[in-house]
Automatic annotation (TrEMBL):
EC numbers on record: 3.2.1.21
Superkingdom, natural source: Bacteria
Region (Disordered): 614-640
UniProt domain Glycoside hydrolase family 3 C-terminal: residue ranges: 518-635
Protein known as: beta-glucosidase
Domain Glycoside hydrolase family 3 N-terminal residues, every copy: 90-425
Signal peptide: 1-21
InterPro entries assigned to the protein according to its UniProt record, in alphabetical order: Cellulose_Degrad_GH3 (IPR051915), GH (IPR017853), Glyco_hydro_3_C (IPR002772), Glyco_hydro_3_C_sf (IPR036881), Glyco_hydro_3_N (IPR001764), Glyco_hydro_3_N_sf (IPR036962)
């Protein structure tokens, strides 16, 4: 009888509206009323669909749209670990908290991830209005991974880090990557990339350096724009098969004194001038011109420059009306979604400000309310909304938003503005019409042979050759090679004979990385980030290995640079010097053997000493004393 009732209602609606209004095939009765409502009709304009749905929503449902939560896993409300989502906890977030946007941190095989994301959409479809979930992710396609900022694994194609693309400086390659990553994301049911990072990398010690496009604002702008084009399928906004990008972090994030990062209390400030600030802003131009669907403000308090002739208010980017409503929406004309970085409305308690060995900072005490530390939660939400935030990242309770409306701090009309932007994006991506994915197809698309082959080419081409004394490279396969930091199986596969003593070798290959320190071991992010020194020192194990090898044979040194390394202590021992930005051992060995050419050029300069680093300003690109290698350095074997 239930099925007959639905059929009867649909039949009455058909004859009432006339044959011309016959429901389209496959339409979804999202609000379960047996009628084809305008927001359910894919033939209706997006504007009308948005307004129809908005009129049906309660204030609490609209406030829920403004939260960008986390898909929990069993035992982890922030989604780390585990192989499935916590269905009961997710149901509570969707039904009780009315949340429909989530970050996923699940790392499982593609078919399994697709199945888990389909299950989330099934929960969403059962809701009162059937609003589909938007599922986002931090970057998944690169070598560098920092808990809470990026991840690897799950069989996605593996490409260089963003600095590798900057070394090539080829927008065509950048767009190709974006398109491949787009297809992989959509195959598993991911709709939003919390990237690219268009921050201008001006402080060499900065812990987030590796995810940038380097120190030149024009290069950053060009490649960030190409990234957006690849993910969103063009420059006219995201398509129904595109992945919405959220370019970050607006603006000035890379100018952090000492390189200390804004995730931490001790890194909550950035120092710039009017002149340098303009360069950091310019780095975002390409992504904005390509109509990035979203922008994420920086955590940090920007100190020094003025906006519209007025000093910048000393609050974090997510609370700053001058930066968001003034500079971004006003001067730059941005009309998309502004998504706050994670946890800006949460408290920063004692073990967030000054943790110690007895009381280290845990996920429960993560908060970045910089400049608003003394305000209550309602005031923080109101301040962010007034500044221009549409959606708050890492938050799962809309009560403070409703409280702000009740107290007259935020108007219902302002809530509607954000709700419109959020709903519009869901409609533009086709999620209301079909949010489900083919789980078996996901296994065929993600990390497929053709995609990884293209990624492998870029891993090789993005390497930078800085020295090649006496034509050390290429090294003919068949030679005896001593290795440090390299998989012997990869060297054998490349045709070399691996020996266990450099005295028995004809050549040596040592892989190392930019040195770092753990200066804040009790802070959640500080304990995971690379801070402090950039220079190699005689007591470093890798330096000792280099010295051991170079005493016997020509030694090739390949330095993985997540930050600009100071090479002074090892350069004299290198017969050939390669810089990598995310490359497998096989990729490095192919360059060593001449099977592939290193085509990259440094996307930043390399200082000569830590004294030179400390002498420069954190907000200016490649300033300070004459570098050991300038931005753009690189040798092209065989010409170029």
């Amino acid at each position: 009888m239930v099925g007959f009732g639905k059929l009867l209602v649909a039949t009455v609606a058909f004859f009432t509206l006339g044959a011309a209004a016959a429901p389209p095939s496959g339409w979804r009765d999202l609000n379960h009323n047996g009628r084809l409502d305008p927001y359910e009709d894919k033939r209706v304009s997006v504007d009308r669909r948005v307004e129809d749905l908005l009129a049906r929503m309660t204030l609490a449902e609209k406030a829920g749209l403004m939260l960008h939560g986390t898909l929990p896993t069993p035992g982890s409300p922030i989604g780390f670990g585990g192989v499935v989502y916590d269905q009961a906890a997710t149901t509570r977030l969707m039904r009780d908290r009315r949340i429909s946007s989530f970050i996923t941190r699940l790392v499982v095989p593609p078919a399994q991830l697709a199945a888990q994301n389909n299950a989330i959409q099934k929960l969403a479809e059962a809701g009162r209005l059937g609003i589909p979930a938007t599922i986002s992710t931090d970057p998944r396609h690169h070598f560098q991974a920092t808990l809470g900022a990026s991840t690897t694994g799950g069989d996605f194609s593996l490409w260089p880090d963003m600095l590798g693309f900057a070394a090539l400086n080829d927008p065509v390659v950048m767009r190709r990557f974006g398109d491949i990553a787009r297809a992989e994301y959509r195959a598993v049911g991911i709709h939003m990339a919390l990237s690219p990072q268009a921050d201008l990398a001006t402080e060499p010690r900065w812990a987030r350096f590796s995810a940038t496009f380097g120190s030149d604002p024009d290069t950053v702008s060009r490649l960030a724009g190409a990234y957006v084009e690849g993910f969103q399928q063009g420059t006219k906004g995201v398509t129904a098969q595109g992945v919405a990008t959220v370019v970050k972090h607006w603006v000035g994030y890379g100018a952090q004194p000492g390189g200390f990062d804004g995730h931490n209390f001790y890194g909550r400030h950035a120092a710039l001038t009017d002149a340098s600030f303009a360069h950091h802003v310019r780095a975002f131009d390409g992504a904005l011109a390509a109509r990035s669907a979203g922008v994420m403000p920086t955590y940090v308090i920007v100190q020094g420059p003025k906006v519209a002739g007025q000093p910048i208010e000393p609050v974090g980017g997510g609370f700053n009306k001058q930066l968001l409503s003034g500079l971004l929406r006003g001067d730059k004309g941005f009309t998309g979604l502004i998504v706050s970085d994670w946890s800006i409305t949460r408290d920063c308690p004692k073990d967030c400000v000054a943790p110690d060995a007895a009381n280290p900072q845990s996920p429960a005490s993560i908060g970045m309310p910089w400049g608003m530390e003394q305000a209550d939660t309602t005031t923080r939400f109101a301040k962010g909304i007034e500044a221009g935030i549409d959606q708050f990242g890492g938050t799962d309770d809309a009560a403070p938003i409703l409280d702000a409306v009740a107290k007259g701090l935020v108007s219902v009309q302002r809530i509607d503005e954000s709700a419109r932007r959020i709903l519009r994006l869901k409609f533009e991506q086709g999620l209301f019409d079909n949010p489900y994915v083919d789980e078996q197809a996901a296994a065929q698309i993600v990390g497929n042979v053709q995609a990884q082959r293209q990624a492998d080419v870029v891993q090789r081409a993005s390497q930078v050759l800085l020295r090649n004394d006496r034509a050390t490279l290429p090294v003919a396969p068949g030679q005896r090679i001593w290795l440090h930091g390299v998989d012997p199986a990869a060297a054998s596969a490349a045709g070399f004979v691996v020996v266990d003593d450099p005295a028995k070798a004809q050549v040596a290959l040592v892989r190392t990385a930019t040195p770092f320190e753990t200066l804040h071991p009790h802070h959640f992010f500080g304990s995971r980030q690379h801070e402090g020194r950039l220079d190699f020192r005689a007591d470093d194990k890798d330096v000792q290995a280099i010295a051991r090898a170079s005493a016997h044979v020509p030694t090739i040194i390949a330095v993985e640079m997540d930050r600009p390394a100071i090479l002074t202590a090892i350069e004299s021992m290198a017969s050939a010097l390669i810089v990598t930005f995310g490359a497998s051992d096989a990729a490095v060995l192919d360059v060593v053997a001449g099977h592939a050419k290193a085509q990259g050029r440094l996307p930043f300069s390399l200082p000569r000493s830590m004294a030179d680093v400390e002498a420069q300003r954190p907000d200016l690109s490649d300033d300070g004393p004459t570098p050991a290698y300038p931005r753009g350095a690189g040798i092209m074997l065989g010409g170029g």
